[in-house]
Amino acid sequence: MKAIIIEDEFLARQELRYFIENYSSIKIVNEFEDGLDALKFIEENEVDVIFLDINIPSIDGVVLAKSVSKFSKKPYIVFITAYREHAVEAFEVEAFDYILKPYDESRIRSMLRKLETNYMEKSNNSPSKNSMSNKINLWKNEKIIIVDMDDICYCEAKERTTSVFTKNEEYSINSSISQFYNTLPKDSFFKCHRSYIVNTTKIIEIIPWFNNTYNLRLKNTSFEVPVSRSNVKEFKRIMNI
C-alpha cells in the first residue's frame, strides 16, 4: 500500500510515520503540511491511503476528503485530529477510521491491521480478476453506464472532470485526467498531452504539426488529438516511428 500523510504539526507527523513504518508494511511516499499541495499530488499520483489531519492550511481536511471521495478510484481516508466534532462529517465521506490525538499506540496498531486486511480483501476481489476487467463505469445523463475500454477513442480534461469519447457517445467521470489515466491499461492508452489521453489502437493517421509535434486522426471520430512536444519522444517509441 502507498500512503501519504497530510499533517502540519511536525512532531505529530513524525510520530505517525514511526507507527506506520514499524507496525505495518505501508509505504509512505510523501508528506504534506498544506492541503492544496497535497490535493495537487493526489490528482497526479495514485495512492492507496491518506492519513489526513483536519485543521491544515489552504484546504480544510474535510473539504479535501470530499474532493478525493469523488475520484474514480477512492483511496482510504484515515482522519487524524484532536477534535471529536468532525466525526459525523468523516462518516459522510466514508472515512475508514477517525483517530484522535494524542495518539494511542494500541489504537493505531489496530487501525493499521484492519487497514491492511481490508486492502488485501479488496485486492483479491478486484475487477482485474473477474469478467469485468475490461469494463469501466462512466456517467451520462446522471446514470452510470458500463463501457468497454476498447470502445474508448480518446479522453479530454474538463476542469476537475474528464470527458470520455467513444464512437457515438460522450461520457464523463469525476476524476482528473491524470487520475483517470492511472486506471487505464498502458498497452493501449497513452497520455499524449496534459489534456488528452488517446487509445493508440484507434489511431489511423499521424499528422506532423507545428514545432515537431503531431495531430492524431482516429477511427470513428473526426476530432484530431494533439501530441504535445514533451510527449513526442515517448509517443514515437510506443508507435515505433
UniProtKB/TrEMBL annotation:
InterPro entries under this entry? CheY-like_superfamily (IPR011006), LytR-like (IPR046947), LytTR_DNA-bd_dom (IPR007492), Sig_transdc_resp-reg_receiver (IPR001789)
* Native source organism of the sequence: Clostridium coskatii
State whether keyword Phosphoprotein applies: yes
Q: List the PANTHER family hit by this protein, alphabetically.
A: STAGE 0 SPORULATION PROTEIN A HOMOLOG (PTHR37299:SF1), TRANSCRIPTIONAL REGULATOR-RELATED (PTHR37299)
For this protein, the record's CDD domains field holds:
REC_LytTR_AlgR-like
Q: State its role.
A: May play the central regulatory role in sporulation. It may be an element of the effector pathway responsible for the activation of sporulation genes in response to nutritional stress. Spo0A may act in concert with spo0H (a sigma factor) to control the expression of some genes that are critical to the sporulation process.
Gene encoding it? ypdB_3
Q: Which GO terms describe its molecular function?
A: DNA binding; phosphorelay response regulator activity
Domain named Response regulatory is located at 2-116
Keywords annotated in UniProt: Phosphoprotein
Note whether Membrane occurs among the keywords: no
Residue(s) carrying 4-aspartylphosphate: 53
Outline the extent of the HTH LytTR-type domain. 136-241
Q: Per its record, how is this protein called by name?
A: Stage 0 sporulation protein A homolog
List the SUPFAM superfamilies.
CheY-like (SSF52172)
